[in-house]
């Protein structure tokens, strides 16, 4: 359903972020996973079996405009565009 689509997920290390990432990945989407804790994202990607071709993990504090701009630029560079995003605003 989401073949060749790219989804950016903020707060991806949290439970809801993980569930959203897993669902989109299973549906064929490319993932841009972001959180303040990149090491946790890398561990998550490994545990879920997300391959490096379809998933990138980036450290990003969404309260910092410069970091958000850099994240979007890297996502576009990696996957050629960014038509979808899933923002996780839940505390954990």
What does this protein look like?
The protein is of the alpha/beta class and 92 residues long. It is built from 3 helices and 4 strands. It has helices spanning 15-26, 38-48, 65-79; strands at 6-10, 30-35, 55-59, 84-87. A 4-stranded parallel β-sheet has the order 3-2-1-4, with helices on both faces. It is globular, with a radius of gyration of 12 Å.
Overall form:
globular
User: What is the spatial order of strands in the main beta sheet?
Assistant: 3-2-1-4
β-strand amount: 15-25%
How do the SSEs run, as a string of H and E? EHEHEHE
User: What would you report as the Rg, rounded to the nearest angstrom?
Assistant: 12 Å
- Counting DSSP H or I runs of 4 or more residues, the number of helices is 3
* Strand count: 4
Class from helix and strand fractions: alpha/beta
User: Runs with pLDDT <50, length 5+?
Assistant: 88-92
Q: Look at the structure and give the mean pLDDT.
A: 88
Distance between the termini: 29 Å
User: Helicity, in percent?
Assistant: 40-55%
Tell me about the largest β-sheet.
Answer: 4 strands, parallel
